[in-house]
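Task 17 of the worksheet. Students: predict the tertiary structure of the chain below and write it out as structure tokens. Keep your answer in the requested format; marks are given for formatting as well as content.
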Amino acid sequence: MKKILLLIVLFAAFFAHAKIVFSEPRVMAWVAAHAAKAMSGEAAACDDYTDDMAVTLTAAGARGRWEVEGGKGEMCGYLKQAAAVFTVLQARTQTQFDDVVVTPTGFPWLSAKVKYTQRTSVSAGRVPEFTIESEDTLVLVRTLSGIKIKAIDSQSTGGI
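Model answer:
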């Protein structure tokens, strides 16, 4: 009887942990922290991705359209280039997340789909201020080391 009770308690704790981990405030705090690491060029931002992640980024800016597709290697390469540009320009950014929807998926809530609109205003010395707006969908997974990003789909407009 004690073993059954212990299993029920562990099962309930596992689900409660998932409910907390994938709550909107917790998820968006994690996403904001990840975005800050990525924009500042911290190598730790790449640790937030699973090894088998899938990425699809499409951006339309003043100088045309470009795409990034692939996995963790492509995403980390993109982050390094973007961070280098921000560093050279000595850019300051302000990011806002709106229309957030977090949907736990996969039994027993081992992952979640996160959709949001991200607006990032960028200002730098000799460059006119601009705003990048993107519609993003992330697939987050629970791992033993914490939350990681398994997939990113982002469509953005604005920018240079």
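Marker's comment: Residues 2-21 form the longest helix (20 residues). Residues 56 and 153 are 5 Å apart (CA to CA).
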